[in-house]
Amino acid sequence: MLRHRFPEPVCVATAETRGLVQIIFSAEEAIAFLRRHWPGDLSNEAREAFLMCERVEAGRVPPEQGHRFFHKAAKSAGILLYRRRRGFRNFRC
Predict the structure, then answer these.
(1) What domain range is 50 assigned to?
(2) 46 CB contacts (<8 Å, ≥6 apart)?
(3) Is 19 left (phi over 0), alpha (psi -120 to 50) or beta?
(4) Which of 6, 33, 60, 73 has the CB geometry, 3.0–4.6 Å to 45, for a possible disulfide?
(5) Are 86 and 18 within 8 A, CB to CB?
(6) Could you give the number of structural domains in the chain?
(7) Bridge partners of 5?
(8) Listing from the earlier edge strand, what are the strands of the sheet with 80-84?
(9) Distance (Å, rounded) from C-alpha 51 to C-alpha 56?
(10) What counts of helices (H) and strands (E) characterise the chain?
(11) Which backbone phi and psi does 26 adopt, to 5 degrees?
(12) What does the pLDDT look like over 7-63, one tens digit per residue?
């Protein structure tokens, strides 16, 4: 069960995942992705995202904070594909 759900999913793909799109819905999933599938060493942005998502899990900050940091790290690493627009069924690039 996703206890710390992001306000919007974050869609990413890396060579590690063989180009398959992974949709990250929560702080827990973001941490797992950062541990297992992040391309190369963790950048400063990725480390910040990891720490922020841990804080979300601990209940110290809201999920929106983890989402913002993970989205920024994915964009910086060039693995962000698209994100779902709130209220729409379609995804946008």
Answers:
(1) 5-92
(2) 34, 38, 73, 76, 77
(3) left
(4) 73
(5) no
(6) 1
(7) 26
(8) 22-26, 5-12, 80-84, 91-92
(9) 9
(10) 3, 4
(11) -150, 170
(12) 999 999 887 777 788 999 999 999 999 999 998 899 999 999 999 999 999 999 999
